[in-house]
Design brief:
Helix content is about 40%, strand content about 15%. By secondary structure, it is of the alpha/beta class. The strands form 2 sheets. Strands 7-6-5-8-9 form a 5-stranded parallel β-sheet. A 4-stranded parallel β-sheet has the order 2-1-3-4. Helix 7 links the parallel strand 5 and strand 6. The protein is globular.
Length: about 325
């Protein structure tokens, strides 16, 4: 089945509750691919509730009191790790973050042995970030608890796509019919992949805007429009999502220089002028100012939603922790 067939099939099921009446029947959140629009909407609606409650003075709850969350990050992170920690603590969870730099992995323990060790401690949720694509899915097969993918290699980063979608929906009121331009280093970006699946499934028109060296070879098969010119790619866009230039994942000559990259592909007010007047500017962070985006654009209070993305990250992760533990909590309470 092609991507377009899957996408069209998902549209047809958009307003149908999944079989069994459970609005989110999945044990894990490993990616956006495979979720239908009804399931994505359910996650966003729950996160929207938490976004509102997080702006109140009494934002901490005991909803997940007694449950344990372990954050296992094999890659450095600031926003994602802190966001998951805050999300768990606001829900009343016992939250533990494990540093792999001081763990037994550094002593030669295998990834699977680490997973089995953590599983024996009986956590309720395991949040994993790993540099290899597919590593999180592999670990999910070896543990009994719910697993959330906090980013794996170049594969997916589902909670980032959800928080991006929530940010757009709260600003624009909807996702369907919007034109979203995703610009920059698409080849190395798991954020781009998850956003492509999510935004396309929810009816947005997705454009990829990048030099050929920073686009995956199968870009056109992903149901998107491809542009190699910023002016053409940003014309009439409702949302412009810039991506970080991931030099740590590059091997070879992907671009001549950072200065030249900024000249042609860095987002400036001049380049942004062809987009819609109320265009929303986004960036998943961390930003390289003067490389992917000009400082005056990143700090534009009328257009930039970058800080709001960080805020929505906590809300989305609270929703994921809540939803993935509901079945377990219901079983413990009983009929």
């Amino acid at each position: 089945m092609t991507y377009d067939n899957i996408k069209n099939e998902s549209y047809a099921r958009a307003d149908i509750t999944p079989p069994g009446g459970n609005p989110f029947p999945h044990k894990h959140l490993l990616g956006i691919w495979g979720l239908d629009p009804a399931e994505i909407k359910y996650l966003l609606d729950c996160a929207d509730h938490y976004a509102d409650s997080n702006r109140q003075s009494g934002k901490n709850t005991k909803t997940l009191a007694g449950l344990t969350q372990i954050n296992l990050f094999f890659e450095n992170s600031t926003r994602t790790l802190m966001s998951f920690e805050i999300a768990g603590k606001r829900l009343g969870m016992d939250t533990i973050s494990m540093s792999t730099s001081t763990s037994s992995i550094k002593k030669g323990e295998t990834l699977l042995d680490t997973a089995l060790t953590l599983n024996a401690m009986r956590p309720d949720v395991l949040v994993i970030r790993h540099g290899d694509s597919g590593a999180v899915e592999l670990l999910s097969r070896k543990v009994d608890c719910a697993v959330i993918n906090a980013g794996d290699g170049r594969h997916e980063h589902p909670t980032q796509a959800l928080l991006d979608a929530l940010t757009i929906r709260r600003r624009k009121g909807h996702l369907n019919g919007l034109t979203v331009a995703i610009c920059g280093d698409v080849t190395h970006s798991r954020v781009a992949r998850s956003n492509i699946w999510l935004l396309s499934a929810m009816g947005a028109r997705v454009r990829l805007v990048a030099p050929p060296t920073l686009l995956p070879v199968n870009a056109t098969s992903m149901g998107v429009e491809v542009y190699h010119d910023m002016t053409a790619g940003l014309a009439g866009a409702d949302v412009v999502m810039m991506l970080r230039l991931q030099q740590e994942r590059m091997s070879g000559a992907f671009l001549p220089s950072l200065r030249e990259y900024y000249k042609f592909w860095g987002l400036t007010h001049e380049k942004l002028s062809v987009a819609k007047d109320d265009v929303l500017v986004m960036h998943p962070g961390p930003m390289n100012r003067g490389v992917e985006i000009a400082s005056d654009v990143a700090d534009d209070i009328d257009r930039s939603a970058i800080q709001e993305q960080v805020e929505m990250g906590v809300s989305v992760r609270m929703a994921c922790l809540d939803i993935l533990t509901r079945k377990q909590r219901e079983e413990e309470v009983g009929p």
